Amino acid sequence: MRTGWPVTLTDQRIVMRPLGQFDARAWRSVRARNADWLRPWEATSPEPVRDPAPTYGAMVRRLRTEAREGRTMPFVITYDGELVGQLTVGGITWGSLRSAHVGYWIDRDFAGRGIVPTAVALATDHCFAIGLHRVEINIRPENAASRRVVEKLGFRAEGLRPSFLHIDGEWRDHLAFALTQDEVPDGVLARWKAVQTSTT
Fold this sequence. Notes:
Elements: E1 9-11, E2 14-18, H1 24-33, H2 35-38, H3 56-68, E3 73-79, E4 82-93, E5 99-106, H4 115-129, E6 134-139, H5 144-153, E7 156-167, E8 170-180, H6 188-198
Parallel strand pairs: 5-6
Antiparallel strand pairs: 1-2, 2-3, 3-4, 4-5, 6-8, 7-8
Helix pairs in contact: 4-5
């Protein structure tokens, strides 16, 4: 990757850093507590499940390999030092495309505090800083909370993608949102802070 990983991104009480093996206990605890909250938005396999789900350790090793190969950036999101979610920049492509997509989840107890918009803004600005041109987020139409995130940050709606991803056991439609670097010359975080200031 073009000097973009590993990296820690910070804005006041919110820190994004690489997901690590030492996060296992906190990550499992948050995921278990939020299983019902996250299930409707979780990716699933269209193939019949024959093998047990990968362990946390296997997941981290796979993500680290992909990060070393410059294809992903797996972050944990912490708030006042507590692990509250995860954000992954994936599908990183260079060449003439220079694009990536972002996915995320957050502990229900911390939703609605502006943590996810800040995390997405930090990640998007980092993508642009290392030379990517376009960042995309795909969201199920029913996911009102995630749609509010992209609306707050000014991501441009690009339309419906029918049966785009296998989520919660079925092929689900998604709405595509994107930003290119030239649309936010001052950065996404600066735009988000301006929105916060105007609503207080």
